[in-house]
Amino acid sequence: MEELCLHPASHQVYFGQLLGMCDQISFPLGQAGYPVYKYVPYGPVMDVLPYLSRRALENSSLMKGARWERQLLWLELLRRLRTGSFFHRPA
Question: Where is the Proline dehydrogenase domain (predicted)?
């Protein structure tokens, strides 16, 4: 982003992800000031299920990282408990 001179304040780049997928990527982007949106498909279950199953198949390699993501979340929780900074306040 820096090489292309795309700074967070310029709002030229937006990121979107399916809710619950790869939060270890979207959280740092949001903390850096980039707009990050999480979306939730909705509708009748029989209409939404094929979409979600395709996303699951496409991202099956990402699901292997769920254990790593859980460990990262625990580390962040412990860091916040140690420092007393429970809420993130963007600069």
Answer: 10-62
- Report how far residue 38's alpha carbon sits from residue 26's, in angstroms, rounded to the nearest whole number: 9
Closest CA to 38 of 57, 51, 25: 25
d(CA 23, CA 21): 6
pTM over 0.70: no
Locus of tokens 């030229």: 12
Identity of residue 83: T
Percent of the chain past pLDDT 70, that is, above it, reads 89
Cα angle 67-69-72, degrees, rounded to a multiple of 5? 115
Write the single-letter amino acid at 49.
Answer: L
Q: Which two tokens stand for residue 63?
A: 């699901």
Question: Which residues have a Cβ under 8 Å from the Cβ of 30 and sit 6 or more positions away?
Answer: 36
